[in-house]
């Protein structure tokens, strides 16, 4: 019987099941509790991330330390979902004000009560010790304490028009909105006490050209020796010898110089656009209108559409001062040329009279240069204000004064404004106030606003005559006859019309925007009071939208990154600039 009992196998599975129940139930309990614990940890992490991003922005908007901590706690707990906030503890380490960036650290501990694990403990005979699990999670947000912004603002004549829905001039609306933007960003910069120049702004007023500042006449990047291939573009120095063989101007080892005994002690002196300003000033008893106002011509393609540094070994990269030639005195019926400002002192046709160089070296009777004319023709804007730290009271005043000094006058050349906005935020010359282009944690931003299509005029379209064959008024492209306005475009080089000039400028703007964005420049664009029912203005709207970078934070209606483009009217310009301020605020932190 005993042997039969030992050999009986009935009931063994039940007995084995009893013996195995503890590890099986324990495994299931652990799996379920592990899954639930992982879910709670992910929820906690998501709540931390959300609280960190929101609190970082709250800090940048001026929250005190206590306000920031309370805001973080409330935001964290509001995003915990099924987790009881009482089971969590949040730790907040506020940003340290050190150079190079500040970090906001959030960490949390979560006491998780297992569902099945206590029963498993009881089954294995364990004591009733505490079975709660402690879960830790952390999140970190690095505040990007530095942004550099160039405000590229249209100062053309149409900015004096009344803004739609406002009752104020566009230029005045722009001044108010721009100053509010700067004040908002300066307020945020004030929260970062020890970071050097956390927020910098530069101002680039533009019309037909851009004024780089007359104080830069001797800058290393200016063509002070007349080496650029466009420096002597409109001058015929052979006419000097025809007038007086003893007072010639000739090319001597690459530089035009005064040659001949007739120059006396001046023999050997170089002759450039700068020296021509001096010659005229001497003939007008120091008339201030004869001084170089500070505007420059666009560099030959492709250099004009880039931030390439100027180099004396590559003269085409140097910047050339604008010098509008004196056009003929001869009227054509009742029409006169656009820019007759000096006595011709010669006969011949209109082209010869315009290019006749001895006239600049002789005094004229009762010299005067009428407003809007002279060698500074098409130079109507105030000078650039380089990047300036708006966290300081002095810097804020400088930028606001620069904005207030803007005036509406002249044509519209958005490409040139865009090019100089890029150069202002760049870390290399001409303007070197910006941080190194490769520095991490710093954003370089160009904000471009215009209220009109690109414009470049034929004299006839202004009721003037063009007997000298210039094909356009003088501007930063020189004259259209020289072709610089068409370089790098598919525009018809033989179509000398305002519409074709606009098309060429739009294409150059496209290239500029692409080049700047390839160099990590963030481009924000604003169309002011542009009418898409008008072909030229519709083209400008489309160009501005193409130029704009994509937001890192906002999505459009299709779920794609929103373009940093705003289509504004005079009535809502201030509101649009507030939205831009929000975008800039978001740029100042990253998880």
Features:
single chain, about 600 residues, alpha/beta, four-stranded antiparallel sheet, 13 helices, 14 strands, about 30% helix, elongated
Number of strands: 14
Number of helices: 13
Q: Main sheet, how many strands, which sense, barrel?
A: 6 strands, mixed
Trace the largest sheet across and list its strands.
8-5-4-9-10-13
Rg from Cα: 35 Å
Termini Cα gap: 78 Å
**Structure classification:** alpha/beta
N-to-C series of helices and strands: HHHEEHEEHEHEEHHEHHEHEHEEEHE
The pLDDT mean sits at 87
Helical content stands at 25-40%
Provide the low-confidence segments as ranges.
97-101
Q: What fraction of residues sit in β-strands?
A: 15-25%
Shape: elongated
Structure report:
The chain is built from 13 helices and 14 strands. About 1% of the residues have low confidence. It has 591 residues and is α/β, with parallel strands linked by helices. The chain is elongated.
How would you concisely characterize the structure shown here?
The chain has 591 residues and is an alpha/beta fold.
């Amino acid at each position: 019987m005993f042997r039969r009992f030992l050999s009986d196998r009935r009931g063994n599975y039940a007995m084995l099941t009893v013996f195995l129940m503890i590890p099986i139930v324990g495994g299931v309990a652990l799996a379920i509790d592990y899954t639930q614990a992982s879910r709670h940890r992910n929820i906690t992490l998501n709540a931390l991330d959300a609280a960190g991003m929101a609190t970082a922005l709250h800090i940048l908007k001026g929250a005190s330390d206590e306000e920031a901590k309370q805001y973080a706690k409330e935001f964290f707990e509001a995003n915990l979902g099924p987790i009881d906030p009482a089971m969590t503890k949040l730790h907040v380490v506020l940003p340290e004000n050190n150079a190079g960036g500040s970090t906001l650290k959030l960490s949390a501990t979560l006491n998780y009560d297992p569902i099945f694990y206590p029963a498993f403990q009881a089954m294995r005979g364990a004591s009733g010790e505490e079975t709660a699990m402690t879960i830790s999670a952390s999140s970190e947000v690095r505040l990007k304490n530095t942004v550099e912004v160039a405000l590229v603002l249209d100062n053309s004549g149409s900015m004096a028009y009344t803004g739609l829905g406002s009752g104020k001039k566009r230029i005045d609306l722009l001044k108010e909105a721009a100053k509010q933007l700067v004040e908002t960003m300066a307020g945020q910069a004030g929260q970062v006490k020890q970071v050097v120049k956390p927020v910098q702004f530069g101002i680039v007023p533009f019309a037909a050209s851009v004024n780089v500042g007359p104080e830069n006449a001797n800058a290393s990047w200016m063509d002070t020796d007349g080496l650029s291939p466009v420096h002597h573009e409109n001058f015929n120095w052979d006419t000097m010898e025809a007038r007086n063989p003893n007072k010639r101007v000739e090319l001597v080892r690459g530089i035009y110089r005064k040659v001949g005994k007739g120059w006396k002690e001046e023999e050997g002196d170089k002759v450039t656009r700068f020296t021509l300003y001096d010659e005229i000033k001497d003939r007008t008893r120091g008339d201030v209108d004869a001084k170089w106002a500070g505007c420059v011509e666009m560099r030959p393609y492709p250099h004009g559409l880039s931030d390439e540094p100027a180099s004396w070994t590559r003269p085409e990269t140097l910047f050339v001062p604008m010098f509008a030639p004196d056009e003929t005195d001869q009227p054509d019926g009742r029409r006169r040329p656009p820019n007759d400002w000096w006595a011709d002192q010669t006969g011949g046709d209109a082209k010869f009279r315009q290019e006749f160089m001895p006239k600049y070296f002789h005094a004229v009777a009762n010299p005067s240069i009428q407003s809007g004319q002279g060698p500074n023709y098409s130079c109507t804007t105030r000078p650039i204000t380089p990047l300036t730290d708006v966290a300081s009271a002095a810097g804020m005043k400088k930028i606001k004064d620069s904005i207030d000094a803007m005036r509406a006058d002249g044509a519209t050349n958005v490409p040139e404004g865009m090019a100089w906005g890029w150069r202002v935020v760049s870390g290399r010359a001409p303007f070197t106030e910006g941080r190194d282009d490769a520095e991490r944690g710093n954003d370089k931003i160009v904000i471009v606003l215009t209220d009109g299509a690109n414009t470049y005029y034929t004299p006839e379209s202004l009721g003037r005559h063009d007997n000298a064959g210039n094909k356009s008024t003088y501007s930063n492209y020189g004259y259209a006859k020289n072709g610089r306005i068409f370089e790098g475009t598919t525009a018809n080089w033989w179509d000398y019309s305002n519409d074709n000039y606009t098309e060429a400028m739009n294409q150059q703007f496209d290239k500029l925007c692409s080049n700047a964005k390839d160099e990590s420049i963030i481009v924000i664009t604003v169309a002011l009071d542009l009418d898409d029912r008008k072909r030229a203005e519709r083209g400008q709207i489309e160009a501005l939208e193409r130029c704009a970078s994509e937001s890192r934070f906002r999505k459009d209606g299709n779920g794609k990154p929103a373009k940093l483009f705003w289509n504004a009217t005079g009535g809502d310009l201030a509101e649009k600039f507030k939205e831009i301020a929000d975008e800039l605020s978001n740029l100042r932190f990253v998880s």
